[in-house]
Design goal:
The complex is a heterodimer of chains A (215) and B (109). By secondary structure, chain A is α+β, with helices and mostly antiparallel strands. Helices cover 54% and strands 14% of the residues of chain A. Chain A contains 10 helices and 5 strands, in the order E-E-E-E-E-H-H-H-H-H-H-H-H-H-H. Chain A is elongated, with a radius of gyration of 23 Å. By secondary structure, chain B is of the alpha+beta class. Chain B is built from 4 helices and 3 strands, in the order αβααββα. In chain B, strand 2 and strand 3 form a beta hairpin. The two termini of chain B are 26 Å apart. The mean pLDDT of chain B is 89. The chains are: A alpha+beta (215), B alpha+beta (109). Chains A and B meet through helix 2, helix 3 and helix 4 of A and helix 1, helix 2 and helix 3 of B.
Chain lengths: 215, 109
């Protein structure tokens, strides 16, 4: 996906009343400026999230396709074309209804490629694998205990106590900890974080964890 | 069995044939193709066309060139290759045979 977030700006919706323009602060929305197939568009934040989710679903659907990049780029070009047609005034902001309308025209991955294929990919690709990673978001030293906590579904404090107790037992705990620190990879990418927590690596979950990271 | 799905599968089967037929009448840019296919009720969602075009291009049946457009960015114009042309001739024959067969079966007493 070549959707580049450029800037975040705030803009005000104005309510036209008989007294003139009254600014209604409740309608204030965050916008994101994106570059889609060479054109710049300003999208409301929720519209951006929906479009981003849609493009991720497409990318996921065509993941094993030879011409994946080209298909997605072509679809993005068409979406940009629809957006250009719908924008009547320069600087007009695209809202979620407009994005939903365009997605309906373009079609969800299931509609694009027939239902059968969609069902197969759901079964094959949505499997979740829990893997041992070091938790870089909640760590005292290397995040080993927190990662082990996720892996075995045990409170990380249990591992911390075991490590500290065995520290005085000929340094066994310390050596084990250092070895684990070296051997176990850190969970850095959103996908790795989902794997660490045992959640399926789907476009929706990735979108969610991406948004959590930004907060 | 669901009727809409069966119809969609039937359409999908001949979509490849329809794309080649449209291009045999002259080069077209993607949106032209979409408009023609939608007008003929051949596709329901526009997204269907893109994977198909890329597959046909990778199979050597089509090629494309970029052309400047008066409004917006350059457009992708698709054209039928020689291989695509002979492929279409075969599909034409196949289609006629199929229609004959189906008609024969439907007219059986």
């Amino acid at each position: 996906m070549y959707c580049i977030v450029l800037i975040n700006t705030l803009y005000l919706h104005c309510n036209n009343t008989c007294y003139g323009w009254v600014i209604n602060i409740k309608n204030m929305k965050k916008t994101t400026t994106v570059s889609l197939s060479g054109s710049i568009f300003t999208l409301e934040e929720d519209a951006y999230n929906v479009l981003n989710g849609y493009l991720k679903r497409l990318e996921f659907h065509f993941a094993n396709e030879e011409g994946k990049q080209e298909i997605i780029a072509d679809i993005e070009t068409r979406i940009a074309e629809h957006l250009r047609e719908s924008i009547k005034v320069e600087g007009q902001v695209v809202d979620i209804n407009e994005i939903n309308r365009i997605i309906k025209i373009m079609g969800e991955p299931g509609e694009i490629d027939g239902e059968e294929k969609m069902k197969n990919t759901m079964q094959n690709d949505y499997r979740s694998y829990r893997r041992l990673y070091r938790d870089m978001d909640d760590r005292v030293l290397g995040g080993v205990c927190s990662g082990m906590g996720y892996y075995w579904r045990i409170e990380p404090l249990v591992f911390k106590i075991i490590f500290i107790l065995t520290l005085f037992w000929g340094g066994l705990g310390l050596i084990t900890y250092i070895i684990l620190w070296i051997v176990v990879p850190p969970a850095l990418t959103p996908a790795q974080k989902l794997e660490m927590k045992g959640e399926p690596v789907t476009a929706d979950n990735l979108g969610k964890s991406f948004n959590d990271d930004k907060k | 069995m669901d009727l809409d799905n069966s119809k969609a599968q039937m359409r999908k089967g001949v979509l490849e044939f329809c794309i080649l037929s449209i291009l045999s009448k002259g080069d077209a840019y993607t949106t032209d193709l979409i408009n023609k296919l939608k007008e003929a009720k051949m596709i329901v969602v526009e997204g269907t066309l893109y994977p198909m075009l890329t597959r046909q291009k990778n199979a050597g049946l089509l090629s494309y060139r970029w052309e400047e457009s008066p409004q917006g960015p350059p457009r992708k114009y698709y054209t039928l290759t020689d291989k695509g042309r002979s492929y279409l001739t075969e599909l034409d024959l196949g289609w006629n045979e199929l229609v004959d067969t189906v008609n024969t079966i439907r007219n059986l007493q």
